[in-house]
Amino acid sequence: MAGENERVCVTGAGGFAASWIVKLLLSNNYIVHGTIRQPGDSKYDHLDKLEKASENLKLFKADLLDYESLCLAISGCTGVFHVASPVPFPTTITDPEVQLLEPAVKGTLNVLKACLEAKVKRVVVVSSIAAVVMNPNWPKDQVKDESCWSDPEYVRSTKTWYYLSKTQAEAAALEFGRSNGLEVVTVCPSLILGPLLQSTMNTSSWLLPMCFKDGFEKISFKYWTLVDARDLAEALLLVYKKSEAGERYICTAHAIGLEEVVDKYLKISHPNYNYSQKLTHTEEEEEKLSSEKLERLGWSYRPLGETLIDSIESYRKIGVLD
């Protein structure tokens, strides 16, 4: 059976996307070490309820900046899925170096050094399209693929610190793998939506509730490139098993304007909401990205309507949407 008794570690196991990879790994008979920051906190209760968690999931208190804690969690594992990364709301960033850049870059290198010490065979690092899209020199009408990288100096000049943290961390991870003979594969997901396994919200999950609560016209970006967290989990396991070392994969499923999201999906599922008519996006907002490389490996994704409906239903269940 797939993954029978193979031991792997997932960093940031209690997070939105990481919880789905933990669930998928357990269902594929992997033994999973999950790192969390505050053992005993009720926000991790959902992990204990996952199928096969009682026998095959072990949680470790760890922090990305605490190397020894990572070594304990990774010891005995043949594979690692490095998902943990700080994603604060932009308005809460007062010191980007401390809040974002150091945890992302140093934290990633700490994970990789611990992997090297534990003789881990392969590491899958979850990056972001934030490390892909901010490149002013890329030809305007050319679809962005894995050869496109965000330009660190340009990103720094725009003060989009999350984008800088993901760009620097991913570049450092691939370089570390090359220099030290460690198999590192990176995956760059777009905006991650989908139902929640946990009872708390993460940054990307607030997008739809904020649309309904504050008004869709208040959302600053009206063109979305997105992927379902469940499909991302499948992509991570796929590249873990099938990719060549040192590869990079964009993981995105749908690119759609907000007006189309409303007209094609939300007006049908939620017809009584008073939607604004001012939802058109500009051509500059459109992001042309390709997941063709990942699809050639065998990846597929679910319809957008399923992601939206399941997401909204899960927000209702935890009380953030009436």
UniProtKB/TrEMBL annotation:
Belongs to the NAD(P)-dependent epimerase/dehydratase family. Dihydroflavonol-4-reductase subfamily. Keywords: NADP, Oxidoreductase. Residues 8-248 form the NAD-dependent epimerase/dehydratase domain. It comes from Rubus argutus. CDD domains: FR_SDR_e. GO terms for molecular function: oxidoreductase activity, acting on the CH-OH group of donors, NAD or NADP as acceptor. InterPro entries: Epimerase_deHydtase (IPR001509), NAD(P)-bd_dom_sf (IPR036291), NAD(P)_dehydrat-like (IPR050425). This is NAD-dependent epimerase/dehydratase domain-containing protein. PANTHER family: NAD DEPENDENT EPIMERASE/DEHYDRATASE, NAD(P)-BINDING ROSSMANN-FOLD SUPERFAMILY PROTEIN. It holds the Pfam family Epimerase.
